[in-house]
Each structure stands twice: as C-alpha cells, then as structure tokens.
Amino acid sequence: MNRRGFLAGLTALTTSRLWAVDYPLVLSGKTLVFPRDHGAHPDFRTEWWYITGWVKDGKGNDFGVQVTFFRTRPGIQEGNTSAFAPKQILFAHAALADPRSGALLHDQRAAREGLGLAVAKDGNTDVRIDDWWLRLVGDIYTARIVSRGFEIALEFRATGPILLEGDGGYSRKGPQAAQASYYYSRPQLAVSGEITISNARTRVEGTAWLDHEWSSEYLAQAAVGWDWTGVNFDDGGALMAFSMRSKEGGAYWAGGTLRDPRGRTRTLRPEEIAFSPIRRWRSARTGVDYPVAMRVRAGELEIELTPLMDDQELDTRVTTGTIYWEGAVRVTQGGMAVGRGYLELTGYWQPLKL
After folding, report:
1. What is the domain extent for residue 255?
2. Does residue 78 carry a pLDDT above 90?
C-alpha cells in the first residue's frame, strides 16, 4: 500500500495551486482490466508500484529487496503548456537489506515527468526516472536500479493470478465510501537476477510481492499512519493485511486479503485484523521507535513477524518528506517457519500528511 507517505513533500506546491483540479473518485463496482490497469492512471492524485522480496545468493546469504515508484498529480500548473510544468511528479525509493553488515543500503530519486528523463506510461507498467526503471512485459517485471554503493538488476516472474484487494480491487481505507483506493497485488513472484554491493556482483534468486495502488483521497485526518504486511507463505498462499492507526490510539481502520494454497481468496473485515507489537527498536539516527517484531491476527490465522535485521529505516525527507521503517521479515506460526514477507511502519516519526 506504500506507499505510502510520499505527498508530504508536496504540501507547499499544492497550497500554491493555480488551477482547480477535479480528481476522479474511487468507486466500488469498477472492474479492473489488465494489462491496461498495470499502467499509470495520471488523472488520479496518487499512485505507486511497489516490489518487496527476499533473495538468496549461492552461499545461502539472505537479502531484502525493495523497489518502489510513486506518481503524483499535484494539481498545479495544469494550464501551463511548458514541458517544465510539474503536472506529474515521480519519486522512487530502492533498498537492499544485508544482515551481514547490519546497515540498510538505500537511495531515492525525484523528478517531474517529461523531457525524456522521467515517465509513467499508460497501458502497462513502464515507469522510469533516469537510469532507474520498472517494466512489465508479458508476465515478467524487470527492475533496474543504479545507485551509490549498490545496484539491482532483477526479474520478477508472475507464478499465479492477480490478487484483487478489498471488493474486487476497491479497497476501503476508512468508514466513508470515498476513503478508498484501487488496489491489487501480485504475490509469489519468482525472482532471479543480480545485485551488486560495493562493486561485488552476485547472482540471486527468491520470492517477491508487488502492490499497485492508486487513489485521489488524502489520508484521513483521524489517522496518523499505518502498519502493513505482505506475506508469501511457503505453501503457496499469501496474506495482505493493514491497520491504520488512530490519533487517539488503536486502529482507525483495517483490512486484508487471505489466499489459501488452492487459490481461494477471502476478504477480511476491519475487526478481523489486529497488529500487536512484540519487540521495539529505536533508531540511533532519528530517535524514532518502531515495533519491528509484530504479532498479526488475520481472521483465524495468527502469525509472528520478526525482522531480517532491525535497522531497515528509510529517511526519505529529501523526496517524500517522511521517515518510515520498511523491512524484510520472517514469518512463523506456533514457532515454526511458514513464510517470508515485508512489514511497513509509517507515521511513527510524525503523523503522515497525505
């Protein structure tokens, strides 16, 4: 759902809007159509393509991988015919978690769309900022990230059907019908390719998760942020669960989707989802305290999430105006390993301003 916090840096722009903008509403009952809806939806306010996964090298070393592209329509300069007008803004975050070093390698990019340097295309997934890109051809996504200290060159192959979140892709984010997004996931992506750390190139394989989500709504004023997880179970099943935290404490809204090994899908109601902290970690850089180990209840299912390493904090204030924790987690049930996934924790530094 990511995704998740990236409009905070645009507050100054939106307050100086020169033209009124009518953003499309997210409506229930709409049928998502593919491959068209794999592509960008530039009329909507916000959108993201978000890949997280676990990969392993030939020596058995585990790594966490994150590649995220964001698109936003700030609603300014829309009557300006100049190619420099910021009608669409793109952001990107990328990270590698290597527990051998205990430090998260991460970088970020931002650019206005246009001039051949940044693009989010309609019709199919094809997003790019300079030499960072994510594309879909057939059933294979390819990601290329060239960054300071690390590189990512991976393929993500779909192994099962698209998972429509919420009610056929209409995902509620609050008690009001308009508080919603269009949202689908692609769990159990088979990963292969190379990662490079400090000029050492390594072949890796693993499993990943993709989210694609778009909306026109701001984060509800009563919410400060969210906890989210996407889990690939070892038996082929999958779970997405989120809980939006209230300013008064507790959950403001929650939701999720559970797919069993046979492909049967169940949509989970808000009262069926609960995130409970098991252990916390405080960042020495920012002083932010995160619940990096979680117990998650999703219907009758109860699992525990423990991080690949504690320090998976991303400071993205220079692009998206926020600090959050996004980390690879091991998944256990009754003490037994049952899967791997990612956990996202937003709004712990400051309340999100979407």
Report:
1. 8-345
2. no
